[in-house]
Specification:
The chain is of the alpha/beta class. A hairpin with a 2-residue loop joins strand 14 and strand 15. The strands form two sheets. The protein has an eight-stranded mixed sheet, with helices on one face. Strands 5-6-7-8-9-10-11-12 form an eight-stranded parallel sheet. The longest helix has 17 residues. The protein has 14 helices and 16 strands. Helix 2 runs parallel beside helix 3 and helix 11 crosses helix 12. The model has no long low-confidence stretch (mean pLDDT about 95). Helix content is about 30%, strand content about 25%.
Length: about 450
């Protein structure tokens, strides 16, 4: 058994003082408050939070950071650059890039990630000899970096509503929903990998295939891009006579096991549907800012009953504390009022809300029975010194994370990942990924 002691820790009821957390076999077995440290305790600095969940990730997008700002444009022009990268990645370059991207996440306090995975086949759409070799690269990358992976294997069957796959999209697609399901069935879960599913969007999955994919995912996490762009809504209304949210509800694809990603351009009726079905919503503020998507109505979705979480999506930054804080800052900008979300609510969407969306309803809590995921955030850095520890989520960032314990194993200590220089890893992996495009 291992014991950790923290002067302050965020328990399910809020911030507590002088906390000892006992860990055995990767789980928390005891939590004691108002207790002095003992000689055998591992002392953690600052405030200890539960492990963060990065609900929405495209690992290969990490290679786009700082490379898409030279010509302005929109989401749709940004996508051209993304497709150029996607067209040439190999299992080896994918593995190296994902390993480095995941290590960067762990440095920032992430202990579980939802990987929205659609880079399935070889260029041109020809299956590899192992049809899941790219998924296995992600498994290995997550194992090496030291975090848990919910593989959201994505059905991506059309290039747009009633449009065939083309170009780089060809490697995303299976022949149909049955072929997608058969391939996914061959991926075996393990202690650190949960196999989930994803509907890329109502643009990329035919209407008649959505119910089959939703049924295949029964009892497992199901994620879907939803109304990130106005054009998606316009196309859905023109083709189906309904918003994407209504299309998904009519197809039986919404509910507590489903998480809608972005939900930026949702109508009041859409908000009510997402809330009444208890569908989760993952907000990705840095991506929504970077691509000019717009501001999601997070407060309205929360009030309606949707479970909120956050994701770094295209990794324009890998800082989940900043993502959670920006949910509140977006509300301040759009509503001209402060304190829409309390610090406790922001911690919840950063931790428990995200873990629930990734298939772990007990995750993201410093409580008996939960996985031993601990994130020590320093309170003496230039960015955090002097802050009220109860408001730390509103000022701290990934650079303030000192120690990260994932499933009882220390992965980051003193701000350094056990793999070594993550910046060097990223530089090498990103250069190699782009070299293939030349």
């Amino acid at each position: 058994m291992t014991t950790y002691w923290a002067a302050q820790a965020w328990l399910p009821d809020g911030l507590a003082a002088d906390v000892r957390i006992s860990v055995d076999d990767g789980r928390i077995v005891a939590v004691a408050q108002r207790t002095a440290p003992e000689p055998g305790d591992h002392r953690l600095p600052g405030v200890v939070l539960p492990g963060f969940a990065n609900t929405h990730s495209h690992a290969f997008h990490r290679a786009l950071r700082g490379r898409t700002h030279d010509d302005g444009g929109t989401f749709w022009t940004w996508r051209v650059r993304m497709y150029a990268l996607a067209a040439t990645l190999t299992p080896d370059t994918y593995l190296a890039l994902a390993r480095a991207a995941y290590a960067e996440m762990v440095l920032a306090g992430v202990t579980a990630v939802g990987e929205f995975h659609y880079l399935h086949h070889a260029p041109g759409g020809t299956p590899y000899d192992d049809p899941n070799v790219m998924a296995e690269a992600l498994r290995t990358a997550a194992h090496d970096a030291g975090l848990r992976l919910t593989l959201l294997d994505t059905a991506y069957l059309t290039g747009g509503i009633d449009a065939p796959l083309a170009g780089a999209q060809l490697r995303f697609g299976d022949h149909d929903a049955d072929a997608w399901a058969a391939r996914v069935a061959a991926i075996r879960p393990d202690e650190t990998l949960t196999v989930g599913a994803a509907i890329h969007s109502v643009r990329a999955v035919p209407l008649d295939a959505i119910p089959a994919i939703a049924a295949h995912a029964t009892g497992r996490p199901l994620h879907v891009h939803l109304s990130e762009q106005r054009l998606e809504n316009e196309q859905a209304l023109a083709t189906f006579g309904a918003t994407p949210t209504r299309v998904l509800e009519d197809a039986g694809a919404l509910g507590p096991d489903t998480t809608a990603i972005h939900a930026v351009h949702v109508t009041p009726e859409d908000v009510a549907i997402l809330g009444s079905t208890r569908t989760g919503v993952c907000l990705c503020p840095s991506t929504e800012q970077d691509l000019g998507d717009g501001i999601a109505p997070g407060a309205l979705l929360h009030a309606a009953g949707a479970r909120l979480s956050v994701g770094s999506d295209q990794h324009v930054r890998t800082d989940l504390l900043a993502e959670a804080r920006t949910v509140e800052l977006h509300e301040r900008l759009s509503g001209e009022s402060r304190g829409v979300f309390t610090p406790a609510q922001l911690v919840d969407l950063l931790t428990a809300g995200g873990h629930a969306s990734l298939g772990d309803p007990t995750g993201g809590r410093l409580a008996v029975g939960a996985r031993a995921d601990l994130v020590a955030v320093r309170t003496d850095t230039p960015g955090t010194a002097g802050a009220d520890p109860a408001q730390l989520v509103l000022v701290a960032g990934g650079a303030d994370v000192d120690t990260v314990v994932v499933g009882g194993v220390v992965r980051v200590e003193g701000g350094r990942h056990v793999l070594g220089d993550v910046g060097a890893m990223l530089g090498t992996a990103v250069r190699a990924a782009w070299e293939e495009t030349r």
